[in-house]
Amino acid sequence: MLKEFKKFIMTGNVIELAVAVILAGAVGLVVKGFVNDIMMPIVGHFSGGLDFAQMKIILTEAVPAVVDADGNETAPAVAENAIRYGAWINALINLVIVGFVLFMMTKAYNKTKKKEEEAPAAPPAPTKDQELLTEIRDLLKK
């Protein structure tokens, strides 16, 4: 069983998949950094400094804990309950930016791939009909 597992792990597909997952994580970090550190400040600048993450509809206000003179808590704290639609807008903007960055990366990759494929192939060998016509032409010239 150990030999079978070793054979399975050492096959090319498993190793290639592992490398692809690791590279995908690294590319994900690069794209996330690009979106958060470069593009979102630009979006914030053009939106008048508006921070979408702070946009929300408060359903229940936060209430601090009530403590009596002896330091005993008489009423527990109540957390704010809100619909944070600004975070959702940020997620949508991130999706559009990430999609565009990945589109540009794929487009650049495909451009380099086409150059390799466009290398002219050797001309095909003449067919039997073409060879026969060439012989006839040569005989007629003589």
What is the compact description of this entry?
By secondary structure, the protein is mainly alpha-helical.
Low-confidence stretches: none
Name the helix and strand elements from N-terminus to C-terminus, one letter apiece.
HHEEEEHH
The general outline is elongated
Give the count of helical stretches.
4
The percent range for helix content is: 55-70%
SSE-based structural type: mainly alpha
| Span of the ends, CA to CA | 77 Å
Oligomer: single chain
Tell me the β content: 5-15%
Q: Radius of gyration, rounded?
A: 33 Å
Biggest sheet record: 2 strands, antiparallel
Q: Mean of the pLDDT scores? A: 81
The total strand number stands at 4
Arrangement of strands in the largest sheet: 1-4
Topology:
Layout (H helix, E strand, L loop, with lengths): L1 H8 L2 H35 L10 E4 L5 E2 L5 E3 L5 E3 L1 H33 L10 H14 L1
Antiparallel strand pairs: 1-4, 2-3
Helix pairs in contact: 2-3
Structural notes for this entry:
The protein has 142 residues and is mainly alpha-helical. It has 4 helices and 4 strands, in the order ααββββαα. The chain has helices at residues 2-9, 12-46, 85-117, 128-141; strands at residues 57-60, 66-67, 73-75, 81-83.
